[in-house]
């Protein structure tokens, strides 16, 4: 079968306005919990879209590391490609592609840097190997070989020995402060259900159904 003929029907359910919470974070929390209960692999994976100074967008998968009324948190090397683009343009978007349950969530907002204390607290929870990798990788920079990367990792292991690994100065976190969140539920005949929450000036949320 040719790729333009690959398709399937979405028959797992629907989404009605009466099903939705009044607040998008509460709705996200409900959907995330339902996804976790399905044993979906990596439910915290999200695609982060950024834009450079020339208007060229780029995307990559990052892991959600926290969410609340302030927004959606992730951590990264602060000299990485995505961090450099965020420095130029704070407007970003997140996509949670929960296709196995025929759902997706899109977050629109701007990225704000998290405090060093917040980054420090999270860094302490990472496996030791991940802490070492943060030091070894000059994320997004060209590197001559895999062997060079592994050598840098071994160098960091020797440098810190069995002692505590400090938070690198070039490593931290961002919080995507949301002003709109869309919830998508697949339906038969491509008549999907889409609802978008938009933040109002008074801080409340307006919900609208979108055509599929």
From TrEMBL:
EC top class named in words: oxidoreductase
Cofactor, how bound (note): Binds 1 FMN per subunit.
Residues that hold FMN according to the record: 60-65, 75-76, 82, 104, 139-140, 184, 194
Recorded catalytic activity of this chain's protein: pyridoxamine 5'-phosphate + O2 + H2O = pyridoxal 5'-phosphate + H2O2 + NH4(+); pyridoxine 5'-phosphate + O2 = pyridoxal 5'-phosphate + H2O2
Domain (Pyridoxamine 5'-phosphate oxidase N-terminal): residue spans on this chain: 34-157
UniProt cross-references to Pfam families, sorted A to Z: PNP_phzG_C, PNPOx_N
Cofactor entry: FMN
Domain (Pyridoxine 5'-phosphate oxidase dimerisation C-terminal): residue spans on this chain: 171-212
InterPro entries, sorted: Pyridox_Oxase (IPR000659), Pyridox_Oxase_CS (IPR019740), Pyridox_Oxase_N (IPR011576), Pyridoxamine_oxidase_dimer_C (IPR019576), Split_barrel_FMN-bd (IPR012349)
Keyword Flavoprotein attached: yes
Key words, A-Z: Flavoprotein, FMN, Oxidoreductase, Pyridoxine biosynthesis
Gene3D superfamilies: Electron Transport, Fmn-binding Protein, Chain A (2.30.110.10)
Biological or metabolic pathway of the protein: Cofactor metabolism; pyridoxal 5'-phosphate salvage; pyridoxal 5'-phosphate from pyridoxamine 5'-phosphate: step 1/1; Cofactor metabolism; pyridoxal 5'-phosphate salvage; pyridoxal 5'-phosphate from pyridoxine 5'-phosphate: step 1/1
Residues holding substrate: 65, 122, 126, 130, 190-192
Organism superkingdom: Bacteria
Known EC number: 1.4.3.5
Purpose: Catalyzes the oxidation of either pyridoxine 5'-phosphate (PNP) or pyridoxamine 5'-phosphate (PMP) into pyridoxal 5'-phosphate (PLP).
Family of the protein in this entry: Belongs to the pyridoxamine 5'-phosphate oxidase family.
SUBUNIT field: Homodimer.
NCBIfam families to which the protein is assigned, alphabetical: pdxH, PRK05679.1
Family annotation (HAMAP family): PdxH
Annotated protein name in UniProt: Pyridoxine/pyridoxamine 5'-phosphate oxidase
Organism (species): Microbulbifer flavimaris
Gene this protein is translated from: pdxH
